[in-house]
Amino acid sequence: xxxxxxxxxxxxxxxxxxxxxxxxxxxxxxxxxxxxxxxxxxxxxxxxxxxxxxxxxxxxxxxxxxxxxxxxxxxxxxxxxxxxxxxxxxxxxxxxxxxxxxxxxxxxxxxxxxxxxxxxxxxxxxxxxxxxxxxxxxxxxxxxxxxxxxxxxxxxxxxxxxxxxxxxxxxxxxxxxxxxxxxxxxxxxxxxxxxxxxxxxxxxxxxxxxxxxxxxxxxxxxxxxxxxxxxxxxxxxxxxxxxxxxxxxxxxxxxxxxxxxxxxxxxxxxxxxxxxxxxxxxxxxxxxxxxxxxxxxxxxxxxxxxxxx
Length: 309
Ligand code: AMP
Description:
- The chain has helices at 28-36, 55-63, 127-136, 150-155, 157-164, 174-181, 186-196, 235-250, 255-272, 279-283, 286-300, 304-308; strands at 3-6, 10-16, 19-20, 24-26, 43-50, 66-74, 80-86, 93-99, 119-122, 143-147, 169-173, 200-204, 210-214, 217-221.
- It is of the alpha/beta class.
- Strand 12 (200-204) and strand 13 (210-214) form a beta hairpin.
- The chain binds adenosine monophosphate (AMP).
- Adenosine monophosphate (AMP) is lined by residues 8, 10, 12, 26-28, 82, 98, 124-125, 149, 151, 233-237.
- Adenosine monophosphate binds at residues 8, 10, 12, 26-28, 82, 98, 124-125, 149, 151, 233-237.
């Protein structure tokens, strides 16, 4: 099944209580593509970068089966830049700076060769751009998945509400779900989000795992308890990449299919945080991912009869 990925490709500068990175390559669509390409190829990427974006990074993505026809390169402009500082819990962070640069005036063009894609993954960027991509699709993809963040809730809520009407699955973290719905209970928040459009809601809770909501059903995928977490940046996007990558491979868009997809998303996100930026994702192989999925199965497996005796 073919997959389109839309999102930022960027430079990030990250501070954690344990270290600080220089300007490194990041961006939602970068993480999603590295992650999803473990499960499905080709990936049809839509994004925009400036002339400062390293050509080598683009070449590495291409070698990974990521098609770049939909990635615009604005030679005399600067790439999107984001910097953030993590708190001691490594779960919460403050955005220090967002420079939209090329993203501010991005008008995406869906290449003809991308038409007919089965899954559209709308990664984090302006809701107006996300909407424009949906509108350019001649045939509605079988599944439209959207990720967003507080920045867009604060600066572009009306556009976000418009795009949500067209979406099957929303991925957000817990604080964003609460911000979007003004509900503290995540169960209530999910119900409010159904009214906005999505039939499935995935609420990510950082090191506390992720919840999948659909109608009255709820499923929980834990996050693997890790000894070392160096950089949580991109964990949400890596999760999204594993989620849609697995769905593209399994072709199962039912609640049960999505249960497996959030386990795969959690498993691959647990690698991403082990090193700064995309470093860990680049060296990852399928065997390591499969072994980690096994560890997830062990993590949640227990014998109920022991409890009843
Ligand atoms: P995550 O940690 O999964 O939420 O994603 C972090 C990535 O999102 C970083 O690599 C940033 O470049 C990117 N990012 C941060 N803010 C924005 C924004 N407002 N729009 C698009 N991408 C963003």
